[in-house]
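INFO batch 0412 | record 1 of 1 | parsing
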Amino acid sequence: MTSRRKFVKSSLIAGVSASVLPFAGSAMTPADKESGKWKHWVWINPDPKDTTTDLESRYRQYYQAGIRGIFFEADSEKHFRAAKAQKLEAHRWMWTTNRGEKSLLQAHPEWYAINRKGESCAEKPPYVNYYRWLCPSRPEVRQYLADDVKNILSKDYIDGIHLDYVRFCDVILPVNLWANYKIEQTRELPEYDYCYCEVCKAKFKEWRGKDISQVEFPEADLSWRLFRYNAITGIVNHLAGVAKDHKKQITAAVFPTPEVARRNVRQDWVNWNLSGICPMIYHGFYKEPVAWIGDAVSEGVKALQGRFPLYAGIYLPDFKDSGEVQLGMEHALRNGARGISLFGDVSPEVLQALEKASVNIKP
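INFO prediction complete | emitting tokens
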């Protein structure tokens, strides 16, 4: 599978009322809570060429810099166990509603989302070829994803599940990416607006008594928007129940603020039952200054009202130097983030910036 963050570099960032389940647990360890320390993370796609010696040295440096967990995009027992040997949590990073497995596409093309023009992303994916979005309103999709999570969490070397692409397709891209596709998304264009399949339309009509096909401006219908927020929330909270059954943590990578997430990708992450959240506060994608990282964190923390901790995701290539990286980290920590999640080249300079920021801003 293409790495989500490689997708970010080359192009773009990379159901009905949801049932409420008990929280899966705190993503902070008891030791971290007692000591008042920050909890930092790294997103990684494990390299099979890494040696055990390489990993021992690398993960020891991570721990010394304050990193306490790793989100691995692929299942590599060698990497997971090496991380755990250095007292790091090892979580599996999973693509969720964006699933383009050839076997799934061939077996169940009817599971895939349909846009307002009537096009299925199984046959005509938007933006890039691997944008293949499952419809979250289908019980079969929910079961397919739950079975995947069960299989992952059954492994003793995996500490938790980290959900990515847990949303609808981007109806609006971050502004810095519009030029890549020669589009201006100042309004919701029908080819990027999902899902209008028969299952979604039928469930919406049962819920609200309206036929969305007969609504003149469906993109402006507030009930239709809420229905789709709830469809994704239903998937997440069902998977949270699976994680709870396995007594393991569940976190998610999401869009940078509650407002941006709802508007751009129908993602209402404030109402999810998680152990922690990692908003991808990639300031460069939105043409915002480094200080905006603090603004985004503040908005998210206030909206969560203490339901679970927020870890600020930063995209290292967006910064001009390690000093600016440190500044971005400090903005995040000062505004309520419980830690930082790093994507990019975690160099010695970045680790040093993380240590300095963690000292300068007290928990």
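INFO post-check: The longest strand covers residues 89-95.
INFO record closed
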